[in-house]
Structures are given as C-alpha cells and as structure tokens.
C-alpha cells in the first residue's frame, strides 16, 4: 500500500466554484484521492471581524456534495493529540470537517475493498485562519492531529454515530505510512489498540462501488 501525494492545494489544482453576484463563495479543490476534496470559502472581512458561509446545501450540491448531514460533532484537543483512524461499517458516514480554533492535519484513508486507491491516503491542513474544510465521502477512515494548542474541531456526519458499528485502523500502520511527522502523539487507549489495515477482516471493511 502506498501513500498518496500531498494534498492538492496549489493554484493549478482542478477546482470548481460557486458564485453569488459575481463573487466566488466556495471553491472546491481536488486531492489525490477521488471524492476527497478541500473546500475554501470566500471570507468577507472588515474592521468588525469577518463573515462566511460554512454550509449551504444548494451551493454544496452545485459542486458535487449531495449528502444530507444529520449530526454535528465538536472536539477540543491539546497540541499533539491524534484522533483516529475511525470509520463505521454498516452506517458509513460522509464527513465535512473544519477547525474553528487552531490548526489540524486532517487525514483520509481509502479502505474500500476493491477500490483502485485502497490503502492510500491524503491530507489537508485545516486552520481557523483559512476557514477551509475537507469533505470525506463514506467508505474512508478519518483521523486528525492537533498541530497547535487548543484545537477546536467541528464536523458534520451523514449518518448517526453507532458505537457498536465503529471500527478503526492503527494510526501508525506502517503499510499506510501516513506522514504525521510526530513520533509520540497523544492517543487514546482505544485508538492505540487498533489493528493494521491488512489485519482487518473483510466483513469489517466497506466495499467499493464504481461510479
């Protein structure tokens, strides 16, 4: 299994935009994993502060994100905390993630059996300054690393959380070789006990469906 290239966040990345009255409100940038994308909003700033749209169902649909999100989650993490890699099997969740305080390295891993990108990963740095987001379709494992103190992490899910359905992949699986760039992150006991992707029984992995 090989690591994907770094996130596609350069100016020549394929992008889609949603505009309003001639001003781009939302830009979609593709990553190395088809379906996983970075979203960059237009932030309206003035001496009072700033304003932006963080979610607009119709505008998101115009750039290819059609999920109905049913649950919002919030976590607070100290620097060096790593959460993941998590997913649900029977209630697979698409996720829309952003940071409202600090900075985090957000990682998605394709774990869909039969996928041409199985075992590959991509990442996006989410920051409160940029107010960017990452969209991760159902069928991917997800995790993030807090890069600064007091990271406030928000994400929407397309299905509810079911504790009995939750599964995970070990964060430092050597086959995945994710570039976390940290040797000893703060990891929960549960996450530290997760197994490598190659050791997960097939019935506990999602299946790839060709588009």
Notable characteristics:
211 residues, mainly beta, Jelly Rolls, seven-stranded antiparallel β-sheet, five-stranded antiparallel β-sheet, 2 helices, disordered N terminus
Walkthrough of the structure:
The chain is mainly beta and 211 residues long. Strands 1-2-3-11-8-13-6 form a 7-stranded antiparallel sheet. It starts with 14 loop residues before the first strand and ends in a 19-residue tail after the last helix. It is built from 2 helices and 14 strands. Strand 4 and strand 5 form a beta hairpin. It has a domain at 67-204: Jelly Rolls, CATH 2.60.120. The protein has helices at residues 57-62, 189-192; strands at residues 15-20, 23-30, 37-41, 44-46, 49-51, 71-77, 82-88, 95-101, 103-110, 121-127, 133-136, 140-146, 151-157, 166-168. The longest helix has 6 residues, at 57-62. Helices cover 5% and strands 39% of the residues.
